[in-house]
Design brief:
Shape: globular
Pfam families: Glyco_trans_1_4, Glyco_transf_4
Domain Glycosyltransferase subfamily 4-like N-terminal: 19-175
Number of domains: 2
Keywords: Transferase
InterPro entries: Glyco_trans_4-like_N
Order of helices and strands: EHEEHHEHEHEHEEHEHEHEHEHEHHH
Structural class: alpha/beta
CATH topology of the largest domain: Rossmann fold
Number of helices: 14
Helix content: 40-55%
GO molecular function: glycosyltransferase activity
Length: 357
Amino acid sequence: MRIAVLAHVRQPIAPPFAGGMESHCWHLVTGLRAREHDVVLFASGDSDPALPLDPVLPEHYERTFPGAEHRGDAALIAHVDAGYAAACDRILGGGFDVVHNNSLHRFPIEPRRTAVVPTVTSLHVPPYEALHWFVRASVVPGHRLTVTSARQLAAWWPEGAPREASVLHNGIDPAAWPFVAAGDGGAVWCGRITPGKGPHLAALAAALAGVPLTLFGAIEDAGYWAAEVEPLLGGTIRYGGHLDGAALAAAMGRASVFLFTPCWDEPFGLAAAEAMACGLPVAAFDNGAACEVIGEAGCYAPPGDVAALARAIRAAMAIPRTVPRDRVHRAFTHDRWLDGCEALYHEAIAARAPLAA
C-alpha cells in the first residue's frame, strides 16, 4: 500500500524521542516500511532525515514558538493551520491508498477529506475541547478511529463507541528492550519532565521508600524542573539525562522497579511497557490506563499519594521479573500492533469502496 503518515508537529519525529507520540510515529513509519509499504511521513522538517519526509512545517513549532502551546497564541494557531492545510492538500493529490493520522489536528478528519482518501486516526490523548467535537463529527464509513486503551474509548464516547472506533494498544519491539534477569535494587523513571507526568512525586516516594532513583527524559517544562524536581536531586535521587533508545534500555534493565506516576488521565503509558519488557515490575499511580497496561506486573497507589506509592515500590520489587516481560510479549508487541494497523487500513479502504463506486 501507499500510506501517508501524518504526524503532530509540536516536536520532531526523531530519536531520542520527546515522548510516546513521537516514538509511536517513528516506529509506525519504520515498521510499515519494513513490511514493504510505500510510506511518506508528513511531519516537521527537522524530523529524522533517514525517513521519507514531506515537511508540514520547516521545523517543530516548540522551536519556532517556544512555550506558546497552552497560551492560545493566534500566530501559532495560524502557522500550524496553514501547514496542515497544505499537507492535507498534498495528501489528497498524492495517490495514497490510506492516511494514518497522528496529528491531533481537525483538518485531516474533515469528512470531505476522509471521503477522498480512507483514513485511520489514532487518538493519543483524552478528549479535549479543541478536538472533541470534530472527532465526533468525523465518524463516516471511510474513517476508522483508534484509542490506546479501553479507558480512553469510554472517555471519548461515554454513551458507547461507534463501530468505526476501537482500541488498538500500542506495541514495542521487545528486541529493543532486552530482558535482564536481575536488577541492582534501584528504581528508574522516564518520560517527558512535565507536571502531568509527576517525576517529583516519583522522587519523593523513592526517597520515602529508601530506594535509589534515576530520572530520565527531556526537560519539557523548565520552570517546573527548577521549582519542583531539581531541588529533590542529590544523594540517592539523580537525573540521568535524555538518552537514546539503546542507552535507555540498558539503564532500565539495570534497575529493579519502574515508577509510573501519571497525574492525568494517561491514555496508555509506553514507557511502562518498555520497562516491563526489560523485566521491571512497576509501582504506579492508578490513573488513566495504568492498570489496563501494567496489570499483574505492578502494584498501585491512589493518584498523588506519595506514601502509598512508597509502599507500592517495595511491594512491586517482589514481583518476579518474568511476569512483566511475559505480559509485554503477550499483549504489547510491535508486530501485534502493526498487524492491527494493517487490518484497520483494509477496513477503511473497504468501507469507502461502495461510496466511491
